[in-house]
């Protein structure tokens, strides 16, 4: 991805995703599909077959890295599709950087959200209990109670936008 207008388009799409995810906890299909199609077309026009393959490989990186998180209920489908579209814009190697950065940013953002709601103590006790179970050779995941702040969904588009912008910055 070399063109400035694709960076602008990506930033605009991520801004819309942030706003809609924060206000409705959904990322619209028209946004993710539109960004994906625009990226594939732009990459294909810029670099012919290699650009087309780069966009498709980047989309696969984003989708395949986040799909397991959706399957296990840790992430919404819109987040997975947004990461796929971001991958199409960036290409495969920068998409992997964006995925890894997104996971780091997502963890930090989740801790901030949980902390702001006063749930860090509950979360620490739950993880200490899980560590005890591991030490007793009885590993188990203890899900947070539904009223616990750690059980609340966060708008993950913020983490995706942060990871994507980090990947763009690291390429510069």
From TrEMBL:
What EC class does the entry list?
hydrolase
Q: Which GO terms describe its molecular function?
A: hydrolase activity
Reply yes or no: does the keyword Nucleus apply: no
What this protein is called in its record is: A24 family peptidase
Segments spanning the bilayer are 27-46, 53-75, 95-116
Say which species the protein is native to.
Marinobacter qingdaonensis
Q: What is its EC number?
A: 3.4.23.-
A Pfam family assignment: Peptidase_A24
Superkingdom of source: Bacteria
Where in the numbering of this chain does the Prepilin type IV endopeptidase peptidase domain appear?
Answer: 8-111
According to its UniProt record, which protein family does this protein belong to? Belongs to the peptidase A24 family.
Keywords from UniProt, A to Z, are: Hydrolase, Membrane, Transmembrane, Transmembrane helix
